[in-house]
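Action item from last week, closing it out:
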Amino acid sequence: MTNPNWFQGTADAVRQHLHRFTARENDYQLILSGDQLYRIDFHKVLESHWKRGADVTICVIPKSESAASNFGLTKLGPDGRVELFREKPKGDALREMRTDTAALGLTPEDAAKRPYLASMGIYLFKNSVLVDLLADASMIDFGYQVIPRSIEKFDVYGFLFDGYWEDLGTIEAFYRANMDLTSSDPHFNFHDMTAPIYTRARFLPSTRFERCEIRESIISEGSILNGVRILNSVVGIRSQIGEEAELERVMMMGADFYEDEEDFQYNRQLGIPDIGIGKGSVIRSAIIDSRTSMDPDTTFETELLSCRKMVSCPWER
């Protein structure tokens, strides 16, 4: 059964919380997606919005033809005004969305490779414009409804961004972005203090290592690693990995809490392993979901796999 009070789309989610924004004396509203990885100076977006007298500004990024059909695309005029928007077009509808990206600052060579402008799902609205658009209850999604309506009624411009941007909305993209962070020169640098990225403090103990071999990896706090071999992997908080286990190109999500003696006894009664990776296990090219319990000597290698689909998670009680 569908709950009509639950969010029906991205725009409906904003509408249901609009009172939180409009109660303040704000002239502009910045709409962001929560499943993306990028670093952008929003002062520049706002400055572009002011200079053009825009009602709406859409942040866009150049894409090749092979990648473009996976995104909502904008077609810009010479002045940067958005003339057309289509959500994930194919075939002729896709080719009609080509834009002269060289006129926007790309080199001729790069413009030939990336002649499409994908919406990044980042929108800057005049407050009054957003309220007007969302007054129509049929406007439930930004990409499919609100943005096309905006182009019909208001002055909409594009803001070109040509830095690192990754949409993490698929398992493949999420895995790829995390694996890239383990390289010696990742595309996205979390250690850039000119534009720092903050995380939530959890006040966990430091990770404990005993007789481990770890290369090109990220190990989060609160983990216990005993005699393990870890290569090109990301290990999440409170992870526990048994002796002689091997991880290679693995994204391990970690755990929400530490098990205690009562939990261990419960696990023994049910005949299931404790949360973590069992002794002697060998895991390659996988995503290990949060709170996964894995038997000793488990071995698998795959393209992408959520281990939780294979291994029981005992504490779901």
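Closing note: The chain has a mean pLDDT of 89.
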